[in-house]
UniProtKB/TrEMBL annotation:
This is Predicted exporter protein, RND superfamily. It is found in: Cell membrane. It comes from Halorubrum vacuolatum (Natronobacterium vacuolatum). It is a multi-pass membrane protein. It comes from the Archaea. PANTHER family: MEMBRANE PROTEIN MJ1562-RELATED, MEMBRANE PROTEIN YDFJ. Its main location: membrane. The keyword Cell membrane applies. Keywords: Cell membrane, Membrane, Transmembrane, Transmembrane helix.
Amino acid sequence: MTSPSTDGRPNWAIVLFERRSRLLVVVLLLATVAVGSGLLFGSGGGFEVATFDVSSPEHEALEMTSDRFDRDTRPVSQVVIHSESTDTVSKPVLLETLRVQQDLRADPTINATLTENQPTVGLANAVALASDPRIALGGETDIEGKYRTLEGRSDEEIDAALGVALRSDDLSPPDQPPVSALVPREYEAGQQANAQLIIVVHDEEATDAELLEAQEAIESTADERFEQSGVESFVLGEQLVLDRSGSATGESFLVVGPLIVLVVVGLLALSYRDPLDVALAAVGIGLVFVWLVGAMSWVGLSFNQLLIAVPCLLVGLSVDYSLHVVMRYREHRTRQPAWPVATAMAAGVAGVVVAIGATTLTTATGFLAGLASPIGLLREFGVAAAIGIGSAFVVFGLLLPALRIELDGLVDRSDRPGAPSTVGSLDGVRRLLVACGSIGSRRPVLVVALAVLVAAGGAMGATAVETSTDRTDFLPEEQAGWMASLPEPLQPASAGLREQTLFVESTFESPSDRTVEILITGNVTAGSVDRTLNAAHAHAEDRPTTATSAADGPVIESPLTTVEQIAAGNETVATLAAERGVTGTGDDDQDLTALFDAVYAADEAAASGTIHRTAGSDNGGEYDALRLTVVIEETADAEAIYTDARSTAAVIDDDPNLQATATGEPVVEAVEQRAILETVLTTFLLALGVITALLVGVFRLRHRSWSLGLVAMLPVLLAIAWLIGTLWVLSIPFNAETALIVAIAIGLGTDYTVHLTDRFVTERRAGGRRNALRLTLVETGGAVLASGVTTMAGFGLLMLTIIPSLQRFGFVTAVVTGYALMATLVVLPALLVLWDRRLTTLDSEGVT
């Protein structure tokens, strides 16, 4: 029997697990209580709907333009009436929409949130006005008068009035979409329409809670009215979407969560074949979740659709840690049956602690690389994942081994005769793992060459993988058909928000022009400003993305157009504009303060749209910002829009008195797409550099080899290249949830390769190459295989949710886990054989 004191166990393992295991359990349980108390006392830990926030000058400029310049910020709800068979613009449906508007205004809950002037806008309203303009004299909110007018019209008269309404720009209330935006694109009077819109305008002072209650009441009222008219309806409103997105995510996990638990427990049962180990692993996973949620609460992080994927990651990593510790413990129990439980556990943990410690460092580093991302959501994801990974190491590397010692001390848990001690001992698993080793050891050059060739093909697709910032990916879909067979309490609500949003976007025209904005700050009243703005106008007009016409107003709007419009009806403004050269004559170097004062005095509402004046007692304050707006082509590409907008801003920046920033929704969209690509590249390079350095350092210290860390890293890079090729082939874009997939691949991949590499080198010292490789694959490879399959299953089950972002994240992560597993079990053995051959050759030649 080998003496426990001379078997190479480090002193820390002896102290922790042989002498102080009970104290270790107590300390870590108290720490669990302290961290978990964040659920009660922390500021985070709740659920929020994911938002795609990027830190950039363009986003800051967009916020500043929203704060400084007058624009309509009233919340709206859209009531969408649709039918595949019934004409939604027929007389009965139009009349019903007026009754619905009456009901909405009469409902106290809804009415309390409505704006005072024209709170509802509908197609029937415009048709009634076109049919008899005199009814407007009774007040623009007189729904009853409009109802009586339409009721007395024939179908032909209504069609004629509808044609007039569609051609007129005067039948929609101010700041509301034109009549043509309330019917499907390309619709013409006399045709059958499959949809129409009612717009409900809320007061901007209404709270989020009031808006949610009102939108739910609007939905209920519309459903009751329209179900008798042969049409269907749904309501879209910001608060309703946020509320149902959060609910749908939670409801999805009520279904998928138990499935994940069932699959994981089942796989653990197959791997361990011991109820105690299965129970301890399940308890350990629960404790990791307590640490995760508690720590997130303490640091103020809340869960969202993307962060919910972190627990799935931790299940896989926890199972991996547990399997390696338990299987190594069982090996020592089998080889040294006379050893006490504590001695075997100390030796087992000591044998894998470097590997799981390195895995913890590399995996956490991979996710923390996301802190370099400009996307706040991905930074939060990286922090949450790193917290969970560290928690998994504490629980499965320290707490559960000590707890297992205490439990085994109470009951004799020696392995049953004939029971396989490790996963690799199972016949089918052993044959599979041995086959993997045989392929690598017999034809290592061929295996590596084929793997690199496929990886090269995949890497070529890197430039072809697109980026996407489609926010509908975070909206829940319709309930899957198989969910209808579930017990009613478990069935997710059939929200269908994604389908509804896409229907509105594809069916109706945008209610307003697509625009970019240039925020101008600095000395905005300097005499050179009008010349600079004229140059910017000319430059913007020549850009290919600039529209040739606008639905309402000029294509390019700035303080110059505001001055021209007001000067046409105000002599004072016209005179001052002429004196200062704004209209092409006079001294164009004069300060513009007096002109802007006159513009504000003549029409403050119009002036405040392009010229910002701070609050103050003298003439209202100082002028500190201007806005230039350019209407762009609807089909223009976001990147082209970004380039043109930046070039226009650069013209203004050339004026030493001014600073200009291009912004607006299309510009922000392009910035977000760039941020995703930046995240992919930055996290990859940062994670690759730091993790490679860590692996090289760890293996140099442990095995005196600089090259071994590079060998362990190469299969991970191959798996990433295979993944990129898969994304390309399947047309899956990089977006919010896949941007960190490269870091995830590095983290999970190094987990697998570190264990096998460390075990092979350790066993190689004690025996021949073939035996070392076989033992490594059968023992450690079995644990890696079980861990990988469990991780793939956990992530794969996310595809059963009704959230597209989670579905795609689950699929992509399951794929990259499978690739990492394949690279570890097939390619890594070949690399280790080649590395060992080279080392043997150098040793035989006397090279050190």
